[in-house]
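Researcher: We're teaching a course module on how sequence relates to structure. For the next exercise, students receive a sequence and then see the predicted structure as tokens, so they can try to spot secondary structure elements on their own. Here is the exercise chain.
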Amino acid sequence: MTEMETAFRPANPDDVPAMVRLLTAANLPPFPVGDHWDTFWLLEGDDGVVGMIGLEVYVPSALLRSVVVDESLRGKGLGDLLTQKALSEARSRGVRNVYLFTMDRAPFFARYGFAVCTMDDFDREGRKSSQYLALIERPDIAAMLTVMRLQM
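Model: And here is the predicted structure for the students to work with:
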């Protein structure tokens, strides 16, 4: 656990500005975050939203989205807390394959059993995710990312 007090809570439409700020501060694209409110969670600290994570669920698949922690709080285990929360939720929803796209955090996700794959490895349901659909249209951007899959 971390030294600071943190609490998970579901995201809601009023959180979009804080979510976009967190994503852009981490140089992550603010893909639409409002399409999956029931599977986006925020981590709140003393100063407001300090982390977030989301899932796009398309049983039996899901896309892990927007794993981000405020830069001043990295290295304190908050990314682990967020990832554990999302993977637990995925299991409870019957997800068997969790996909993700990352720029430079492949070693972090490999600790959870994620392995490098390609966009061709996405199953039919996983191909419904908004990021997959956006990146299939932008192979130049997709080529800069590492694609990973966790088989649960």
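Model: If you want an answer key for the exercise: The mean pLDDT is 91. Residues 7-151 form a domain with the Aminopeptidase fold (CATH 3.40.630.30).
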